[in-house]
Amino acid sequence: PVTLNNLPPNKIFVGDLPSDLRVRIRGRWSRILDAVEAKRGPYPIDLNGFQDGEAFRFDPLELQRYLKQSGIDVVSVEPAQLVVRLDRFLSKLVTVVPTLVGDPTEGYEVDKNLVQIKPQSVWVEGPYDVVAQMREAHTTAIEISGLEKDLRTDILLVPPREPFVKLRTDRVTVEIPVREKIFDAS
After folding, report:
1. What confidence score (pLDDT) does residue 175 get?
2. Residues linked to residue 93 through DSSP beta bridges, in sequence order
3. pTM of the prediction?
4. How far, in Å, CA of 56 to CA of 171, rounded?
5. For the chain, how long is the longest CA-to-CA vector?
């Protein structure tokens, strides 16, 4: 697996990042086995000094040092490079909107103005042009069919569909007050 390090300030990577590298190595079988079985973290891709559109080439000698195994040689790396795609980064607060589905039991009602959400807003972050247009984050569906009393639930937020956009918080607490309808007998 790979990970990105040292992104330029206020930038976000928006390119095609390989989930892993295929590295072909050559050497004594026992040393290859040691290299393969070693538990290492993701291979760090250092983007320090890279600009949008430049190619990052995977250096076989750097990969050899990363493997920390003498007596083996890196023969090839796939992919051999990745194109660095950077965009301006933005992080901002958006309002959380509950998604209520259904209706309470007959004779009961939910006043949507009294629904409480904690937290009421969450941070969204990603490419500037996309995040700048976002105003709200929605909860997954909260079924209120058949309710006769208040409901308090921890619920997941719907992840943004836009690529490279994410929420810092993935769930909120929603309190839904349910009241008996008052009928006017006059």
Report:
1. 96
2. 123
3. 0.73
4. 36
5. 94
